[in-house]
Specification:
Blueprint lengths: L2 H9 L15 H12 L2 H14 L3 H25 L5 H10 L1 H33 L4 H18 L1 H26 L6 H7 L6 H15 L18 H29 L3 H6 L3 H10 L4 H32 L17 H17 L3 H28 L4 H4 L1 H21 L6
Helix pairs in contact: 2-8, 2-11, 3-10, 3-11, 4-10, 4-11, 4-16, 4-18, 5-6, 5-14, 5-16, 6-7, 6-14, 6-15, 6-16, 7-8, 7-14, 7-15, 8-11, 8-13, 8-14, 14-15, 16-18
Length: 420
Amino acid sequence: MAASVMLPIMDTQAHIPSGHLKRALTLPWLVFYGVGVTIGAGIFALIGVVLALAGDKAPLAFVLAGFIAGITGVSYAVLIQKYPRAGGEAVFVNRGLGKIFARLAGFGVVLTGIVSSAVITLAFAGYIQELLPIPKIVLVFVIIGGLSAIAWYGVRESVIFAAAVTLLEVGTLLVVIFFGLPLLSDFGAVTQTLVPPVGWIPLSGIISSSVLAFFAFIGFEDIVNMCEETKRPEWTVPRAIYWTLGITILVYVVLAIIAVLAPDRQAIISSTAPMARLFENVSGLSGKPVAVAATIAMVNGVLVQIVMASRVLYGMANEGVAPEWFAKVDRQRQTPVRATLVVAGVILLLALFFPLVQLAEATSLITLFVFALVNLALFALGRAEQSGKLHRYRYWGLFGSGLCLVIAGFQMSAGLIGGH
């Protein structure tokens, strides 16, 4: 439904804002955004950990992780066609399970975005302090202040900035892949990395590593929160989800194969900058440019999380599951100004005053919990209908919900709680 049609209806509701968001995004921009928020600091750090856990089967771990993400990705794509509104998870769960669960889902998404942004901000500040003697408090204020200003200024500007950094991130990974291409000429060795092992012990190692690799895929779901700023969202958003997951899976699996076949695997595993070591391994050149690209990826991660979390608060206000105050839209920029300021303020407080390690570890479980609620909402909505797409996909949602809960249980039992 077009914004010009929705607006008069929205004004009749007490909890609906007096403004609307600007529709400026097409499929290429939304894919840029999705790839940018998904391919971030996670893969630069996780490749070594997954390689250590899964060994020769690290590519298979990324395939399994992509499958886990893809199950819920389909649920998001189906639901967004029925409810193309900002606030994604909160909207879906509110319609399917009610306001209590919608608040849990919505604030869970906001919390993971805020906490991960604060962690990334601190990590970036620490890296810069290794190069320049700038106080942490100054760096934190500059990073959060500058990125919040971009998020407030406009969604197109935010996505253009994120797209530019995405090109750098993906370009860096493609350079690593380019230098590793000779290793892929051994078709037998490549195929062997994707063949499932026999026996529970090696299989459990792949499952454990796929749980970690899964968090490198977190972020694709943020696409749905941009739907009110997207042209033809019912058509564009599902395709952006599928393109984002497809590109991400392909890049991750190829990188994992190259890492497995690299001459000095142990150097990659033991390094705090594994992607830089992998580049040195396959190219014989310095890995410093790759390390710099990783820090820039951190900045991009903060921006897209600010944009995402503010849109979730805005969408929750429209649904009546968050204070109407958050639904205020800047008249000139047509962005959710109050939600953006609150998100930035909380990130700033966390980055300056709170120990974040345990909170960051908990974000993974919160994300799986939110995914379980979204899938369960699809099941509930589909069961309530007698026909249509939601009805056809109702058991897909039930399967996705069960899968997320099983993964969360496995993660807690294995002690493999990690951040993205």
